Amino acid sequence: MSKGFPMLPQAAQAIERLRAAGHEAWIVGGCVRDVLLGRTPTDYDLTTSALPEETEAVFAGERLIETGLQHGTVTVQLEGVPLEITTYRVDGGYTDARHPDGVTFTRSLREDAARRDFTINAMAYAPGEGLQDFFGGQADLSAGVIRAVGEADRRFQEDALRILRAIRFASVLGFELDPETDAAARRNAPLLQKISVERVFVELSKLLCGPGAGKILRAYPDILGVVLPELTPTVGFAQHNIHHCYDVYTHTAVAVDHVPPEVTLRLAALFHDLGKPATFSMGEDGQGHFYGHPKVSAALAEQILLRLRAPKRLREEVVRLVEVHDWPLSSEPRLIRRRLQQLGEEGFFALLALQKGDAAACSLSDCTREDGRNAVETAARAILAARPCLSVGDLAVNGRDVMAMGYCGPGVGAALRLLLERVIAEEIPNEKTALLQSLEEKDAKKPEKKGKKVSF
Ligand code: ATP
Ligand code: MG
Fold it and tell me: 238 pLDDT band (50/70/90 cuts)?
C-alpha cells in the first residue's frame, strides 16, 4: 500500500519533518479515504503524536495559524499549501449532542482513530508505514458502506451532525448506510435540532450536490424532515394529475437528480413544489391543481434559507427561481428577450435547467418536451450572440437625448423604459432616429402624458 499511494508533496514533507523530530505523523481521515477511492482530496489533514507546541517548534519559521489550538490543531502553510495538523486526541464526554465537553491529547493513534465518525474516515497513512486501518475502513470502502466507528447510537448521541454526515457521504460517494448505522441514524434524528444551523446547511448543500442525492432524499425523508420540516407535508402527497406519475416528494427528489449539481439549482429543485400541499384543489375534471403554488413555495424557501442562515445572494437566487419556476419559456425570440430582461442571462439559463429537471420528473409524455427546451437554449444563445437590447443602458438613446425632447425628472426614466419595452417587443428597432421618432409620435397622440416637460 505504501508504494503508489499518491500524496501531496507538502503533506509528505510535513510528515517527514515531524518524524525527524521523533514524533509520529500521518495523513488521516477524508484525504486517505479520497486517495483510496482514486479521488483528489479537497484538503489534507495530518494527525500526530506531537503536542501543539511541539508541532509549532518543528515548523518554527513557517507560516502558522493557531485558530484551532484549543482542539490541538495547528495549521501550517508549506509552500502555500495549508495543512491542518492535529494532535492525537480523545474527545471527552458529550452532554449536548454537539460538542465534546473537552478534549484530551493522547499518544495513541488508535484512540485518535476511534473518535472519528465512520470507518472510511478513520484510516491513517504515512510513507514507509503504510495504511493504518483499525476498524475495517478499507473493506467498507470496497463494499460502499457507511458504518459508524463503535456503537452507532452512542456516536450519534455524542454529535448529532454525524447523522447528516452519514447520509451526506452516502449521497456524495454513492454508498449505503450499514443497517445498524441506518437504524441508529433514524432513531436519533430528532437530536439534529440541537445542531447549529450553519453546520446543518453545509452538510445539506454537500448532500444535495452528490450524485446520489435523489436516492438519499427518497430513502431518508424522516431525517431530512427534522432539519427541513417544510418537506414533510409533501411526502406521499398524491398529485391526482395526468402530468404527474409521482407524489410531490418523490417528484422533488427526481427533479433534484435532474438538475446540474450546483447548490443554487439543487436547492431550487428541492423547494420548487413545497407549496403544493397548501394549494391543492380538485378540479371538476377530476384533476388535481395547485394554483399559485410557486409563490407559496418561494415563501417557504425563503423561510428555510433564512432559518439556516444561508448566504444572502444564494437565498435570493433560489427564492427567485422557485417563484418563477413555471414561467412559460419558448423559442419565440420576443419571449426569450423578455425573459432575459426579467431574469438576466444567468437566471434565464438557471430557470431553463430547473424546468428541464422538473419536466424530467413528470409523466413520461412530459419528458419529451426536453427537445423543446433544447431549442429554447439554442435560440437564446443565438439571441445573446447578437448582443440584444435588454436593458435601458443598451438603448441607442440615453437620458440626455430624452431630456432634449423636453422630458425631465421621473419622466426621463419612464420614457426610456417605454422605449425598451417597445424594442423588446420588436415594435421599433434599437436605432436613435426610430426611437426618438417613436417618442414624438407618442407625444403627438397623447400630449397630456408627456406631463413632466420642462417649463421655462
Ligand atoms: P470532506 O470531503 O467534506 O472534507 P472529510 O471526511 O475530510 O470530508 P472533514 O469535515 O474535513 O470531513 O473532517 C476531517 C475528518 O475529521 C473526517 O474524515 C473524520 O475523520 C473527522 N471528523 C470530522 N467531523 C467529525 C465529526 N463530527 N465526528 C467525528 N469525526 C469527525
Ligand atoms: Mg476534509
Answer: confident
Chain mean position to CA 433: 48
The answer to whether 149 touches 180, Cβ cutoff 8 Å, is no
Beta carbon of 162 within 6 Å of any ligand 1 atom? yes
User: Which residue has its alpha carbon closest to ligand 1 atom 3?
Assistant: 30
Q: Which atom of ligand 1 is the closest one to the Cα of 168?
A: 3
Q: What element of type H or E holds 434? A: helix 432-445
DSSP of 205-239, one letter per residue? HHHHTSTTHHHHHHH-HHHHHHH-GGGGGGTT---
Q: Rounded to an integer, what distance in angstroms lies between the CA atom of residue 139 and that of residue 119?
A: 9
Cβ-contact 204, 227 below 8 angstroms: yes
Closest CA to 244 of 260, 231, 255: 255
CB of 121 closer than 6 angstroms to any ligand 1 atom? yes
Q: Whose CA is nearest to atom 1 of ligand 1?
A: 30
Distance 168 CA to ligand 2 centre (A): 13
Q: Which residue has the cell 443598451?
A: 394
Three cell numbers at 373? 427546451
Indicate yes or no: pTM above 0.85.
Answer: yes
What does residue 48 show for φ and ψ, rounded to 5 degrees?
-145, 155
| Res 448: pLDDT | 46
Query: Taking a C-beta distance cutoff of 8 angstroms, is the pair 438, 409 a contact?
Result: no
Residue nearest to atom 26 of ligand 1 (CA): 117
Distance 435 CA to ligand 2 centre (A): 58
Confidence class for position 451, pLDDT limits 50, 70, 90: very low
C-alpha 313/C-alpha 344 separation (Å) is 15
The residue with cell 479520497 is 34
pLDDT in tens, 202-235: 999 999 999 999 999 999 999 999 999 999 999 9
Q: Is the CB of 159 under 6 A from ligand 1?
A: yes
Specify which residues 103 forms β-bridges with: 91
Ligand closest to 34 (CA) is 1
Atom number of ligand 1 nearest to Cα 34: 2
